[in-house]
Amino acid sequence: MVMTIDEYAAWAATIAKVDEHPSNERLSYLGLGLAGEAGEVAEHIKKLLRDDWLDKAGLVEELGDVIYYWACLCAATGQQPSELLKASAAKIRRRISEAASR
Predict the structure, then answer these.
(1) Are 58 and 65 in contact (CB under 8 A)?
(2) Number of domains the chain contains
(3) Is 101 helix (H, G, I), strand (E, B) or coil?
(4) Is 52 helix (H, G, I), strand (E, B) or coil?
(5) Which residue from 1, 4, 28, 11 is spatially nearest to 85, judged by alpha carbons?
(6) Could you list the residue range(s) of the whole structural domain that residue 72 is in?
(7) What is the rounded CA–CA span in Å between residue 22 and residue 93?
(8) Residue 101: other Cβ atoms inside 10 A
(9) Residue 19 confidence (pLDDT)
(10) Which CATH number do you get for residue 36?
(11) From the CA atom positions of the chain, what is the Rg in Å?
(12) For residue 99, what is the enclosing H or E element?
């Protein structure tokens, strides 16, 4: 089954029990979960630098965990992930254009 990023976020929100008005505790839990999983991604990259070997399967698994917490935070803040991705791409394009014009 193929899922859009918006469908995934809605599904993840049900798993994480995220509603329209999450508590500070729930938001903190999700934010810390995202930070922790990003740390796991960084750990894989560190080991690549140290050992000159990348555990791609492990990295991919951690990236999936990052996406889960990110999607939950999108839902918790009322953001459609697809719209957030569009805005992010526009911001990056703007920065590239500004850098090229300097």
Answers:
(1) no
(2) 1
(3) coil
(4) coil
(5) 4
(6) 5-101
(7) 32
(8) 6
(9) 86
(10) 1.10.287.1080
(11) 16
(12) helix 81-100
